[in-house]
Amino acid sequence: MKPFLLLTTRPEDDVARAEAASFQRFSGLGHDDLRWVRIEREDAPAIRAEELSGIYLGGSPFTVSDPAETKSPQQIRAERALAAVLDEVMEQDIPFLGACYGIGTLGSHVGATIDRTHGEPLGAVPITLTEAGREDPVVIEAGLPEVFTGLVGHKEAVTALPSHATVLATGEHCPVQMFRVGTRQYATQFHPELDVPAVMERARAYRDHGYFDPGEMEDIFALLGRRTADHPPHLLRAFATVHGRGR
């Protein structure tokens, strides 16, 4: 099997390492099979279909719909690098799965409207598969039920998708929780790389970033502590399984 590539954009070293560890854990890929590049500070590697089984993109404190004048040099660097990567992903039809931030990056790349209309605070919400989602090979491999719990916390989301994109999962307050472009490129609004303990660790690192009221953090954690979100992480292993075959 050719290796997979994990791209991350988190400026905080401890958060970036924890995210990479989560992708490693839930994808089931060994260290030699999952190459990690932090593109907010490193150059993205050459993207060649003959050398990769697929690409994962982690979440981010960045939001693509921020006004350009408010974006940091690291964010601008990451966005430019991701645009170049996605050019190659689409041209070469390379399997791609973006988590949370992937909605904004892949969505904006293919012409979706990304704004703050459907942002959701930190929490666990019901996610419902569409008919297309129930028939998708990665979703089937993951064994996702028609309704499952997803972990969310995002400022922006898809308001409108282009006609060539397919909605695979939806939610009550966020209508596009997962979509696919073509047959190989995916993005989720919920976090498939996190379980409940990991999302609380992430939230502590970003308590002052506007995803929730910091004064309510412990109350939110108390609610999260009574929930489980065991199904979404199966997507990472399923993506590796489906797109690692014969590549």
UniProtKB/TrEMBL annotation:
<dbReference type="InterPro" id="IPR029062">
    <property type="entry name" value="Class_I_gatase-like"/>
</dbReference>
<dbReference type="Pfam" id="PF00117">
    <property type="entry name" value="GATase"/>
</dbReference>
<dbReference type="InterPro" id="IPR017926">
    <property type="entry name" value="GATASE"/>
</dbReference>
<protein>
    <submittedName>
        <fullName>Glutamine amidotransferase</fullName>
    </submittedName>
</protein>
<dbReference type="InterPro" id="IPR044992">
    <property type="entry name" value="ChyE-like"/>
</dbReference>
<feature type="domain" description="Glutamine amidotransferase">
    <location>
        <begin position="49"/>
        <end position="194"/>
    </location>
</feature>
<keyword id="KW-0315">Glutamine amidotransferase</keyword>
